[in-house]
Specification:
heterodimer; A: alpha/beta; seven-stranded mixed β-sheet; B: MetI-like fold
């Protein structure tokens, strides 16, 4: 049961960008991640799903060290994540993250939110950073709000700004931690559309989400987690039509039949 | 965006009934809305009528002006004797600073007020403001000490009055503020050693009255120095104030830090900001804005607490006022003396309070969540 069911498949071109080998994590006595092994190729689009408390958010938060793992190896963009702060900062520059609750900086305008990291982390001149920010804000269709503060925007607009803010760092990987869970239903689509556009442009993406429609149409691979383990990973067609394990079948029956 | 669909054919606007608007409405709503409020209103008006006329009489109508002599004021039924303030003004303001050189502390006061006013404008919150402060403080040192540019040397034991109060409080707050930020961050640090040091420092200093800290600085501290080495009394008091203010402000700032959601720290981290960049650009601007009310509270009480230096023999504004009362010619006019310096303290504190309210409003306007 603990053994992950995986079928051999060819990854898209480009080689490996994330590798997890035997990763374990505990919160105190609680064993949140149990022997997670994962390999992500450049350009791959992965959807991570599973019941709440299954460790899926924790897993992707380990990939940019917002959470610390206690055992095993995580290698991102050729750098192993350890206690070394310099390495962690190097990895975080290349890995964008979008949060459930957007986490925009409320004291900065939309534009300043987007230019902060390029200016301070990438040491980019302000004019250039603003130009890039406007490009991405246009791409998420929110350029006209550039000088407003996050508090003046709707949830869907804020999440699109958060995506643009990450993209401004020109990341090699984008992590999405339940990006649509905190949104009103009518705003989910505008955010998913932006994410689909990103996927079509070849961005490497790991997305924790309950949007199974998104998984079916966009993902190269669906990963199912339960109680801290990767139970099954497969192409969306196989995953939804021909689930291999009982737990996957149970989960799918619960989320698809309501 | 906000179309009002009813505007075209809406009902006509009517005036509210006369009993709820205007002076009559205000009186009914605020002073006489219930029988017990009406009773209280009547009682308070009665009380004010008994207190205010004699007070005004003492302050103004029966008072002797700023040119009055003490003997004129000593006739029975006299009001306030502002002649005391007129005669002692320069002593109260400048202490024992050499009389013919007192333009120097006067310019010092002007420099401090100019610096503070300039710092109030958010458009001036740029790196050059720090340079302006450095230049201002250098000018203040030259003016107060002298010994260069043909100014006679004045040792700081002779300093007193308002410049001393301003030096102690403004320099004290300016140094204590960054120290407090470091202490507050240290208290929330992941590094145990730094956390323990910060917590110990804050709790030790907060657990001790300011007076005892001043006594320690003036009496005990010299015992630990090698013989022959002396550190200036004013400097020792200044350091004691800085240590004290830093601990209190650190706790005010910690309150602000705790109010910042974890997601803000994480968003900064995830973008690759270093710890200090994250603090400086993301966390502290929000935390300090939240901490404004308790910080200003500390500023105000600290400004007034500088008057405690009187116990170690420094003559700040309160000290010079008390010393002025020891002049046999003017003995007994303590009400005038304390009212006068009370007014000066009040003017500064009231300004701080008003400014902080404005700052809060401005910051809230742009931070609207």
């Amino acid at each position: 049961m603990a053994e992950a069911v995986s079928n051999a498949r060819h990854f898209p071109e480009g080689g490996e960008i994330i590798k997890c080998i035997g990763v374990h994590k505990w919160y105190g006595e609680f064993h949140v991640l149990k022997n997670v092994n994962l390999s992500v190729a450049k350009g791959e689009r992965i959807v991570v799903c599973g019941p709440s408390g299954s460790g899926k958010s924790t897993m992707i938060r380990c990939l940019n060290r917002l959470e610390e793992h206690q055992k095993g190896q995580i290698i991102v963009d050729g750098i192993e994540l350890t206690g070394n702060l310099k390495n962690i900062e190097l990895v975080r520059r290349e890995v964008g993250m979008v949060f459930q609750h957007f986490n925009l900086f409320p004291h900065l305008t939309v534009l300043e939110n987007c230019t902060l990291a390029p200016i301070w982390v990438r040491k980019m001149p302000k004019a250039q950073a603003e130009e890039i920010a406007m490009t991405y804000l246009t791409r998420v269709r929110i350029a006209e709000q550039a000088n407003k503060y996050p508090g003046q925007l709707s949830g869907g607009q804020q999440q699109r700004v958060a995506i643009a803010r990450s993209l401004c760092m020109n990341p090699k990987v984008m992590l999405f931690d339940e990006p649509t869970s905190a949104l009103d239903p009518e705003m989910v689509k505008e955010v998913l559309d932006v994410m689909i556009g990103l996927a079509e442009d070849g961005m490497t993406m790991l997305c924790v989400t309950h949007e199974m429609g998104f998984a079916k149409s966009v993902a190269d691979r669906v990963i199912f987690m339960d109680r801290g383990e990767i139970i099954e990973q497969n192409t969306p067609e196989e995953f939804f039509n021909n689930p291999q394990s009982d737990r996957t079948r149970l989960f799918l029956s619960q989320i698809l039949n309501h | 965006m906000t179309d009002n669909v009813h505007s075209a054919a809406g009902a006509p606007d009517e005036r509210p009934p006369s009993s709820s608007v205007g002076l009559l409405g205000w009186l009914r709503g605020n002073l006489f809305n219930t029988w017990y409020n009406a009773l209280l209103t009547v009682l308070i008006i009665g009380g004010l009528m008994r207190v205010i006329p004699p007070l005004l009489d003492w302050l103004i109508f029966s008072a002797h002006g700023f040119g009055a002599q003490a003997t004129e004021c000593r006739v029975p039924d006299s009001g306030a004797c502002w002649g005391f303030v007129g005669d002692k003004l320069r002593f109260i303001m400048f202490g024992t600073f050499p009389y013919d050189q007192q333009w120097r502390p006067l310019v010092t006061i002007a420099i401090f007020i100019a610096l503070l006013l300039a710092s109030c404008d958010r458009r001036f919150w740029k790196p050059w403001l720090a340079l302006l402060w450095a230049a201002g403080l250098a000018a203040v040192s030259v003016l107060m000490w002298g010994g260069v540019f043909g100014l006679t040397y004045v040792e700081n034991a002779l300093w007193g009055g308002l410049p001393l109060t301003l030096i102690l409080s403004v320099i004290g707050l300016a140094v204590a503020f960054p120290a407090a930020i470091l202490l507050a961050l240290g208290r929330r640090s992941d590094m145990p050693a730094i956390r323990v040091i910060s917590v110990t420092y804050i709790e030790l200093i907060r657990g001790v009255p300011l007076i005892s800290l001043l006594f320690m600085a003036s009496v005990m501290f010299p015992l630990f120095l090698p013989t022959g080495v002396t550190i200036d009394k004013l400097l020792r008091a200044q350091v004691a104030f800085i240590m004290f203010a830093a601990a209190y402000m650190a706790e005010a700032i910690r309150g602000g830090l705790q109010a910042i959601p974890k997601g803000q720290y994480e968003a900064g981290d995830a973008l690759g900001l270093s710890y200090w960049q994250n603090m400086r650009k993301v966390v502290l601007p929000q935390a300090l804005a939240i901490a404004i009310p308790p910080l200003v509270n500390t500023f105000i009480s600290f400004f007034k607490d500088t008057s405690l230096v009187i116990i170690i023999g420094l003559y700040d504004l309160l000290g010079t006022a008390k010393a002025a009362l020891t002049d046999p010619a003017w003995r007994g006019f303590y009400r005038e003396a304390y009212l006068f310096i009370g007014l000066i303290y009040w003017a500064f504190c009231f300004f701080m309070s008003k400014y902080s309210q404005k700052l809060e409003r401005d910051l809230n306007r742009s931070h609207r969540r």
